[in-house]
Design goal:
InterPro entries: Acyl_transf_3_dom, Acyltransferase_3. The chain is mostly helical. α4 runs antiparallel to α7 and α9 runs parallel beside α11.
């Protein structure tokens, strides 16, 4: 089935010929990050008074950062894509009997921390500079994000976000300065942790029944621990896994009209959800199902992708998308406050200011990507080599021969 061809970031970078669906998923991921970025930037520059209505008409304050009404929808798209890519890779490895708990945990944590740690440190520094120099600007006095900036975050707050506790309802909510976008990283981390427990329980017949029951109980405890906000959105993430599991059924001759129809239904759902009063969770579920249908259609496009302007654009948007999502708010606030304080006449032209800040913040995120996220695999391999070398040495000291050691 084509879904078995899930490619890692490293494989996509090295591969000369990519399947067309991988290219389209890159474009969707990059576009979703841009939508979130623009929505937050619009809110920072224009404030609430001129912001468009929320995606959820019944509760317009449930997502105050959603200036365009599409930012939260983009996060839902991220969840479904993550379920397909990460959850699908877990099922693929289980099918091949190649799943390793230590390696899986190391890859997921390396992927998250390589970006998150610099984002936390740089974000705290930038927020402190903004507060020190520009606290009297309108950006701070009327800003949705800047109201959480009270000084350099303490070590407790840093650890709170480092270990992805910010969205767990059992813990008191703590803001890491202005960076409100980090809430979803907590969801992602716990989905990464919970899904393998369920997957091994359901899809690993080689594992003993007692272990599978134990993992199932552990998953239930984990869902209780993370609380309602994360647990209720876990099924949305799992819809990406559903897209992985369903075999392709659309005939090749029907692919173009079917994919066009699925794209139109997704756009129609977006429009309807912005026009009708509906509860937030229900709206997100409808949106996730709609995007999953669109994703299922895309996964049929298994032919080789052609090198073109579109392919270069898809790669260019996709690779720094995680860094852009996680890092843009503090720098956008700093630059907006700097512009307001230093060039008040220019700040009156908000369209120009928004365009200028869009470019500058994107460049800032791009530099962070080149320094950190691009080197994720290098950091991971270095730590992986260190950890597993130590384990091999310990086994050798315990009496195992080198052949026995590496065979385990």
């Amino acid at each position: 089935m084509p879904q078995d061809q899930i490619l890692t970031d490293t494989e996509r970078k090295k591969s000369r010929v990519l399947p067309a669906y991988s290219l389209h998923l890159d474009f969707v991921r990059g576009l979703a990050a841009l939508v979130v970025f623009y929505g937050h930037l619009h809110l920072i520059v224009y404030g609430h008074t001129n912001a468009a209505s929320s995606l959820h008409k019944s509760d317009p304050t449930s997502h105050p950062a959603d200036a365009t009404g599409l930012g939260h929808a983009a996060v839902v798209v991220f969840f479904v894509l993550s379920g397909y890519l990460v959850g699908g890779s877990v099922l693929r490895d289980l099918k091949r009997n190649a799943f390793s708990w230590p390696k899986y945990a190391l890859r997921r944590v390396a992927r998250l921390w390589t970006v998150l740690i610099p984002v936390l440190v740089l974000g705290a520094i930038i927020d402190s500079l903004s507060l020190h120099f520009y606290s009297s600007t309108q950006i701070f006095t009327g800003g949705e994000f800047s109201r959480h900036v009270t000084g350099f975050p303490g070590i407790g707050v840093f650890l709170h976000y480092l270990f992805f506790l910010q969205t767990i309802t059992h813990f008191a909510p703590v803001a890491f300065g202005s960076n409100g976008a980090l809430w979803s990283l907590s969801c992602e981390f716990w989905y990464y942790a919970l899904f393998p427990l369920i997957a091994v329980c359901l899809f690993s017949p080689r594992t003993s029944k007692a272990v599978r029951i134990g993992l199932g109980i552990l998953a239930i405890i984990g869902l209780w621990f993370v609380g309602s906000r994360i647990a209720l959105y876990f099924p949305l993430w799992c819809l990406g896994v559903v897209a992985y599991l369903i075999p392709p059924r659309v005939p090749q001759s029907w692919l173009k009209p079917v994919n066009l129809l699925l794209l139109l239904q997704f756009l129609a759902v977006l429009y309807i959800l912005r026009s009708k009063a509906i509860g937030a969770l229900r709206a997100d579920m409808v949106l996730a199902v709609s995007f999953t249908l669109f994703l299922y259609g895309i996964l049929h496009l298994t032919g080789p992708a052609r090198t073109s302007l579109y392919s270069r654009l898809a790669h260019g948007l996709s690779f720094p998308s995680y860094t852009l999502y996680a890092s843009h708010i503090p720098m956008a606030i700093f630059l907006a406050a700097f512009t307001e304080a230093t060039f008040p006449q220019l700040f009156g032209h908000k369209v120009v200011v928004t365009a200028l800040l869009f470019v500058l913040v994107y460049l800032y995120a791009g530099i962070q990507y080149l320094l950190f996220e691009r080197n994720t695999d290098y950091f991971r391999r270095h730590v992986e080599t260190l950890i597993f070398r130590q384990r091999a040495e310990q086994r050798e000291k315990a009496g195992a021969t080198p052949v026995e050691t590496y065979a385990k």
